[in-house]
Design brief:
- The chain is α/β, with parallel strands linked by helices.
- The protein has two domains: 19-151 and 293-300 and 309-362, Rossmann fold, CATH 3.40.50.2300; 154-284 and 364-399, 3-Layer(aba) Sandwich (Rossmann fold).
- It is 40% helix and 20% strand.
- It has 13 helices and 15 strands.
- It has helices spanning 2-17, 41-60, 79-91, 103-119, 153-164, 181-197, 218-227, 239-250, 268-272, 293-305, 313-328, 333-340, 396-399; strands at residues 27-34, 67-74, 96-99, 126-129, 146-148, 172-178, 202-209, 231-234, 257-260, 280-284, 344-347, 350-354, 361-362, 365-372, 386-394.
- The strands form three sheets. A seven-stranded mixed beta sheet has the order 7-6-8-9-10-14-15, with helices on both faces.
- Mean pLDDT is 94; it is low at 1-21.
């Protein structure tokens, strides 16, 4: 009798789940391929910890009932090393790969997976890009096996210039960026979009410097000072932004505002400190004081590591994967990719949609400003007492940009 009751109860539970737990207990290996050495090691280390920490949170409860396992491999920020790391990951049984630092490594993964997946039916691997933002990755070079969770360079610049155009103090802009695809795109889109929205704005400098190699930005700051710029737009990240801001503070460049993409990334908040209050802006899909479940993760992460959890797209990744597995009733990348196309889900920045035409996530963007933490925004960055306070939120349609992707589906 007891067995019969248990059997009935079990059947009711399974029926109510509606097949969502078809993979319950299955372990899904996710390979993380990003830098753990060199000048960008601090950024990579933070993001690997973020993936590991959030995977543990989702392992407690997720829509598909699976277990996530993260395999971290150092790609040394190199496309060639990334290809080797990808082979190693696949040898270890990973069918999902995540990467975000550098569009060169991202393209290397996309190229490798196009070949691998075509030659190895039944062993396909899917790529979730959480931070590589070159627009070409979802335009001329788009791939069915690639899904981008960050907003691309053009989307962020659309939001940033929409905000800047209404600031009368913005008259002379200096561009300084890393000399690789993302930096080139920041420069290109800044000029194109500002010209369209505020043709009176002058660009008084446009510098490109080596990625993750410059240790002293004083000469660049001297050029900015001499140019008479009132604003700087930069897509720099990691040590390249931290050292740039530090050099600006050291030189007493107090009358210039910085408009950034990655002001909250490791090292930059400490470099900014109190001296940069009110002078640094950031365009991003998140900020660390967002309410809801992400807020709890940010707080718990800081308690555990005494570090900031600033890569919100990691949360996007696990939400999308767990819901995708549940809808596909499978963890097979082929079935999951089909479900991802056009998928909508609720995330920390509102409802987001994985656009089917190019696999670019459409999402709301924030403009935030470096200010003293407190009140509604109590969580500070890197224990500085300061944080990025949101000053404007743009719905997904505002920053959405068109795509030229001609998707080749298997």
């Amino acid at each position: 009798m007891k067995f019969a009751i248990k059997a009935v109860a079990a059947s009711v539970i399974l029926a109510s789940a509606g097949g969502a737990f078809a993979q319950k207990g299955e372990t899904v290996k996710i390979a993380w391929l990003d830098p753990l050495s060199g000048l960008m090691a601090a950024v990579g280390t933070n993001q690997l910890k973020s993936f590991q920490f959030i995977s543990e949170e989702f392992n407690k409860k997720n829509a598909a009932g699976v277990k996530f396992e993260i395999i971290g491999i150092d790609n040394k920020l190199s496309p060639q090393e990334t290809t080797s790391a990808l082979r190693s990951a696949m040898d270890q049984g990973a069918r999902y790969v995540v990467q975000g630092n550098g569009s060169g490594p991202a393209l290397a993964i996309m190229d490798a997976l196009e070949k691998h997946n075509a030659r190895n039916p039944g062993k396909e691997v899917l790529f979730l890009n959480y931070a590589a933002v070159d627009p070409d990755l979802t335009n001329s070079k788009c791939s069915y096996w690639h899904f981008r969770l960050d907003a691309d360079t053009s989307m962020k610049m659309e939001a940033l210039t929409t905000y800047m155009k209404d600031l009368p103090e913005v008259k002379k802009v200096y561009l300084i960026n890393q000399n690789y695809s993302h930096g080139h795109q920041v420069s290109k889109f800044a000029k194109e979009m500002m010209q369209r929205k505020r043709p009176d704005v002058q660009f008084v400098g446009d510098d490109l410097h080596p990625l993750a190699q410059v240790r002293d930005f004083a000469p660049y700051i001297a050029k900015i000072k001499a140019s008479g710029a009132d604003s700087v737009i930069t897509g720099n990240w990691g040590s390249d932004l931290a050292l740039l801001i530090k050099a600006a503070n050291d030189a007493g460049l107090n009358n210039v505002n910085f408009y950034t993409y990655y002001g909250s990334v490791t090292g930059s908040p400490t470099a900014m400190g109190a001296a940069a209050a009110g002078r640094v802006y950031m365009v991003a899909y998140a900020h660390i004081n967002l309410p809801g479940e992400l807020n709890k993760i940010v707080v718990d992460y800081k308690k555990k590591f005494n570090d900031d959890m600033y890569t919100g797209s990691v949360y996007h990744a696990f939400t999308m994967l767990s819901e995708g597995f549940a809808k596909a009733k499978s963890t097979d990348p082929v079935k999951v990719a089909a479900v991802f196309e056009g998928m909508k889900f609720k995330s920390f920045n509102g409802e987001v949609e994985m656009r089917k035409t190019d696999h670019q996530l459409q999402q709301g963007l924030f403009i935030s400003k470096w200010e003293k933490a407190g009140g509604k925004y109590p969580i500070d960055s890197e224990n500085t007492g300061y944080t990025f306070v949101p000053v404007k939120y743009y719905e997904p349609y505002v920053a959405s940009t068109p795509t030229s992707c001609q998707m080749k589906r298997p």
